[in-house]
User: Which sequence fits this backbone?
């Protein structure tokens, strides 16, 4: 049907796009050593006023980053056990970040990438000082990721067409 937004197999363009996004996130992990991949989307922050109920956005245009989709590869050695990476991944899925603030928000607004390492690297011998000088404090939920065995994290913006 022309103009209906539904493909020949009955799926909407949005559903097809979400499947393609999930496949891309899955392929990042399955075709590399990465444990998980996540796509965050920029959305207007809901606001509430008195008895008028919640409205989307506000006069100052506050935006937030919200989890859109993600994929986490199961570790073979923890299939039957307690998978700390999956727990950290699940915790991350409910996080919201202010656009332009903190690591996630600044990466999105500045359109730059940022590596974060569990241990100092040769290029960044003092990660704590580097972190403090370039972005706000390390988000507390990242401690769970590093405690689970994650060694490094790469955050980068994807330009939208």
Assistant:
């Amino acid at each position: 049907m022309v103009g209906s937004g539904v493909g020949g197999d009955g799926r909407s363009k949005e559903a097809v796009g979400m499947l393609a996004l999930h496949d891309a996130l899955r392929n990042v992990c399955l075709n590399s050593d990465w444990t998980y991949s996540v796509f965050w989307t920029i959305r207007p922050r809901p606001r509430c006023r008195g008895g008028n109920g919640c409205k989307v956005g506000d006069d100052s245009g506050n935006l937030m980053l919200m989890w859109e989709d993600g994929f986490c590869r199961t570790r073979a050695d923890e299939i039957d056990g307690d998978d700390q990476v999956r727990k950290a991944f699940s915790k991350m899925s409910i996080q919201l970040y202010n656009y332009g603030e903190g690591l996630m928000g600044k990466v999105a607004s500045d359109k730059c990438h940022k590596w974060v390492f569990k241990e100092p690297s040769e290029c960044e011998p003092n990660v704590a000082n580097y972190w403090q000088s370039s972005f706000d404090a390390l988000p507390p939920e990242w401690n769970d990721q590093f405690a689970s065995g994650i060694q490094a994290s790469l955050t980068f913006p994807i330009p939208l067409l």
Q: What stands out?
A: The CA atoms of residues 4 and 12 lie 8 Å apart. Helices lie at 13-30, 84-92, 102-110, 127-134, 141-147. DSSP finds five helices and seven strands in the chain.
